[in-house]
Design brief:
It is a single chain. The chain is mainly β. It folds into 2 domains: 39 residues, Rubrerythrin, domain 2 (Single Sheet); 120 residues, Immunoglobulin-like. The protein is built from no helices and 12 strands. A 5-stranded mixed sheet has the order 5-12-11-8-9, with no helix packed on it. Strands 6-7-10 form a 3-stranded antiparallel sheet, with no helix packed on it. Strands 1-2 form a two-stranded antiparallel sheet. The model has no long low-confidence stretch (mean pLDDT 85).
Length: 184
Amino acid sequence: MIEQTFGPRRCRDTRKPLWTLCPDVTFYQCEHCGALYPVITRGEGGPGNISCCGKELEPLISVPYDEEKGLEGGIKLSYQITGGYNDNAVKVAWRDKTFKWKPKWIYLKTFVGGYLKYIRDDKKSPMVFALADTDAFCYCDEDPCLECSFRCKRGFVIYFYGDDIGLVEIPLDKFNPYWQSESK
């Protein structure tokens, strides 16, 4: 009998977490100093007034990403879920025709919170977000994800921010209708 290995990041939950556990996030960025404020609120009240450098900040408004069209300038954004049970991660990639564009930061909203990563000038695509505990819940050990009908990471959202593109959001809800066949 083969003994199953349980990695330290593996989710031990017996059912998928509710994607409504983590509230939406609103981003504020100061035009003067560049400070970023990701704000998560529960309930009706909202975050109140967010200010920096003596000015009240306006929230960044996200636009949904269209996988078919991409963004202006030939910029393409994508993701892949990798690692199976023990090394669950979301690999986030970007590319453009010139290979010079990159986002300033990427935020991954998960079941129980989020991960923010700033992109260094020398960083090349992709950026990997390692998942653990409840965020690492998955139904199978496929690596990479087959994008089946269970959509384990449904409710996750990737936010890309670049000065020239603004805030772009991609929900992790891809579905491949051919996941059981050889015609991928």
